[in-house]
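User: Here's a chain of 450 residues. Predict its fold as tokens.
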Amino acid sequence: MILFKNVAYLGKKLDLLVTENAEENSTLGFSFDPEDGFHKHCLNYGANYGKQGGRIVALHENIAAPEGCTVLDMDGKILFPSLIDVHVHFRDPGMEWKEDINTGLNAALHGGYSHVLCMANTAPVNDNAGITRYMLEKAKNTHPDGPFLHPVAAATLGLKGEAMAPLGEMAEAGCIAVSNDGVPLISTEIVRRVMEYASDLDMLFIDHCEDPYLARGAHMNEGDLSAKLGVKGQPDIGEALQVARDALLAEYLNIPVHIAHVSCRRSLEEIKRAKARGINLTAETCPHYLLLDETAVDNYNTNAKVNPPLRTWDDVMAMRDAVKTGLIDCMITDHAPHAAHEKENPLDMVPNGISGLDTALTLLWQLVEEGVFTQEDIVRTYTENPGKRFKLPYNTFKEGDPADFFFFDPSIEWEVSKENFYSKSANTPFLGRMLKGRVCAHYLGGKKVL
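Assistant: Prediction complete.
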């Protein structure tokens, strides 16, 4: 066992005691049921996790060290349960110059993540069991002790929105959710069928909400700034329309739905109405929608081009309030790495996306220090809610929980630069900024992985 002394958690100084392996679990009576809902996807884990992995024993003041226990003083470090990111892009297979599974998981490890859901827009697309198995095998070979990758199945073949992918085969191979990712589904009939099949397979449908006609040819938010820059803009109503459609379908079919990367007040209004009617709908957002508005794209800043686009400051304030009140359920990075040369073109020619795994927690901690959020808000949206919604193991520091946790050192100062990223790519509007705070140690299943 390991005893961590003087850890800071939720504003208190406490001690944390954890087991390291199955033998220690057995002596304390911790059991493991592979049919447990939170261990549904145990085939995606490494050999030293789940049944074999360490567990939480206790978190409170003045814990006495058991005989033979390793004792570590963590004074000055902030304790977090490991985070769960349900929306990342690792570009592998096919675009490994941007990111591969090894580097993506390494960035996740150093960012504080235990589990990541990897979207299907690879090349070839993850629309068959062979690609799914390739992704899982590479993840287990490069990071056997975690973080753990969970592939998201393409909803349609080639993400073309025409014919459904073989979801049953992909679920059996290890996919835990379904999404057409960044390609909005035009056909409501296809959306319905995907939702029904996904539900039958116990896979959650994640939808990228964007009206494909209103958004066609857009490169930023539609408004005064897009008019000034002479750039085609994407109106926020296009996102809200699709949110409303998905909510109505979920209500009619009595099937759950998860709304990807919400960016604006109008969408939040639709989500609020849906939840008030009891619809089984959850939603996510990203740190950049809580920190930046459309002015970040001024002067044609390509590193701030993302989809959905950065909106107005009013939208930023609405998103912050939605996180605080619980209207937004999950935090994600939407980690979308691109090579530097791909962003060195005119705004209308560069791909959308921000590389976020390296910076997300530090940026959110900045908002904690400013009094916008609390550590509880981060834990709820980045650990507990995604763990529950996607049926993944998560740590609440209750006895028997998986020993997935990390220590964050708020005193570490670092510059956002390619050299300081663990991801292959550093396409971020925060380039050149000095940030404070970074993960300094990480344990998964009671094993030190960083």
